[in-house]
Write a structure and sequence with these properties.
By secondary structure, this protein is an alpha/beta fold. Helices cover 33% and strands 28% of the residues. It contains 13 helices and 18 strands. It is globular.
Length: 380
């Protein structure tokens, strides 16, 4: 039976989510950007232009809906999820806000709400793989390497932003947390660069980013790390920009006018980082999980190399992020996942039926995660 779903955010990923869910449900897309909504409306979906920062606006909007999808920039995410929970509505969210989502756990439980957070590709699918493997084996280490990049490497940046501009810069400044020998380690973003070869892609550069998020609390694994992937050389210019203050949020005075350097940086860079219509890009993610299963050392790998869908004009990052979210949304709607409280994606992976549903759901949409056991189990 068709359900009524409201999607907050009509950007690249929010649009992909709306179109995918519209195959089986009634969708209403909400954004403050009328131009983004016009494109969605052309495809027959209902839209509402609204400022979600207005007091009471979110609770008013969600009243008649069976499920809420959150696809807003990270700085808006926590408040949005909180207001949806207060309204007593289930939500699947991909806003990747910087605050600790478990600060809303008791509220969600008191409201009898299922709130699935961080449900994208990474965080998201990586968590699901680890959650699944954690139920089958004693995991000793987890490594996630992930990135979204344009196919054509254009000077000077060799990068295009495939999700919220504010969240892109946040990756470059938010301290990276990982687990080493059972202890939390905090380093600056862009640290510990390594060159890694990928089949069909070539050599990419990995660096520390704050992608483990909920796994730090929910998984008792002695070694866990996530690193972001870019073309080699990217880290050097990002460090220069950061060290020079271009990513700073502290206001400076320019001829009597107060400005935030990051606002100027965003205004200058993002037109250069914007994907052109039809421009090809790809997502690559490699998960490696090591541990003991039934007394035997095992070393597993999950891998995906997904590409831009020219037929629908959907970016790979929108597909891999959005379709993880929509798979989870269907599980919540069908009450196949009804755990109450804040639910990071690893909770989805703990159930084998849900795990297999998510993989099959994405396979039907052309996203094929490859699985193999590595022969050399001693090297991570």
């Amino acid at each position: 039976m068709k359900k009524n779903i409201i999607v907050f955010g009509a950007g690249l990923v929010g649009k992909a989510i709306a179109f995918d869910l519209a195959k089986d449900h009634r969708i209403t897309s909400v954004d403050n950007n009328q131009k983004a909504l016009d494109e969605i409306r052309k495809n027959g979906l209902d839209t509402i232009q609204a400022d979600l920062t207005e007091d009471g606006r979110i609770s008013e909007l969600v009243t008649n809906f069976d499920l809420v999808i959150g696809s807003v920039p990270g700085f808006m995410g926590y408040r949005m999820v909180k207001e949806v929970i207060e309204a007593g509505k289930n939500i699947v969210d991909i806003s990747f806000f910087p605050e600790d989502p478990f600060g809303l756990d008791e509220l969600a439980k008191s409201q009898n709400v299922t709130a699935v957070v961080d449900c994208g590709v990474a965080p998201g699918m990586g968590n699901i793989f680890l959650g699944y493997q954690h139920t089958k084996m004693e995991v000793s280490s987890y490594e996630c390497l992930v990135g979204g990049l344009p196919v054509n490497r254009e000077w000077p940046y060799e990068y295009k932003a495939v999700f919220s501009p504010a969240d892109v810069i946040e990756e470059y400044v938010r301290p990276a947390r990982y687990i080493q020998n059972g202890k939390l380690v905090v380093k600056e973003a862009l640290s510990d660069t390594e060159l890694v070869d990928f089949p069909g892609i070539g050599t990419l550069e990995s660096w520390n980013s704050d992608g483990l998020r909920s796994l730090i609390k929910t998984m008792d694994v002695p070694d866990m790390i996530e690193k972001t992937l870019r073309y080699p050389g990217c880290v050097e210019y990002l460090k220069v920009l950061r060290a020079s203050g271009f990513f700073s949020t502290e206001e400076i005075d320019i001829n009597g006018i107060k400005i935030k350097p990051v606002d100027v940086t965003s205004r200058l860079l993002f037109p250069m980082w914007k994907l052109n219509p039809g421009e090809e890009e790809f997502t690559v993610m490699r998960i490696r999980i090591k541990g003991i299963e039934n007394g035997i050392p095992r070393h597993y790998e999950y891998y995906v190399h997904d590409k831009y869908d020219a037929e629908t004009g959907t970016t790979s990052m929108a597909r891999t992020t959005g379709y993880t979210c929509t798979a989870a949304a269907n599980l919540v709607l069908e009450k196949k996942f009804n755990r109450k409280g804040i639910c990071p994606p690893e909770y989805l992976g703990e159930n084998v039926d849900n795990f297999e549903f998510i993989l099959e759901y994405q396979k039907q949409r052309g996203i094929n995660y490859q699985f193999r056991e590595l022969e050399n189990r001693n090297n991570f």
